[in-house]
Amino acid sequence: MGFFDSEIVQQEAQSLFRDYQSLMELGGNYGKFDREGKKLFIARMEEIMDRYKIFMKRFELSDDFMAQMTMKQLQTHLGGFGITPQQMFEQMNTTLERMRSEVENNT
User: What are the pLDDT digits (tens) for 63-79?
Assistant: First the structure.
């Protein structure tokens, strides 16, 4: 069975995409959130990032041709911006840490 034929992989991909899209739509109003709302948003974003890292690690460790091609495409795409997948996650974490710091310091 191929990587993308796995029902578990398909379900997690759909769940991740749906959850991320919902959070991004909600994030459009981030500036209007109260302090606790901002903290909750940041926590949810961190949860999705953790799930995404695990999902990407599955691609990376798989010997399935399509999974490897997907990783190569991601690396090529991000390379166009001069970053690696690891750097992408580091930048996202830095952004979330900055957001958290702003929330904590604006009490």
Answer: 999 889 999 999 999 99
Describe the crossing of helices 35-61 and 65-79 by its angle, rounded to 10 degrees. Answer: 130
Q: Are 60 and 71 in contact (CB under 8 A)?
A: yes
Please give the Cα distance from 38 to 49 (Å, whole number). Answer: 16
Task: Kindly report, residue by residue over 28-70, the tens digit of the pLDDT.
Answer: 999 999 999 999 999 999 999 999 999 999 888 999 998 899 9
27, part of any domain: no
Q: pTM of the entire structure?
A: 0.83
Residue 24 resides in a domain: no
Return d(Cα 98, Cα 107) in angstroms, integer.
15
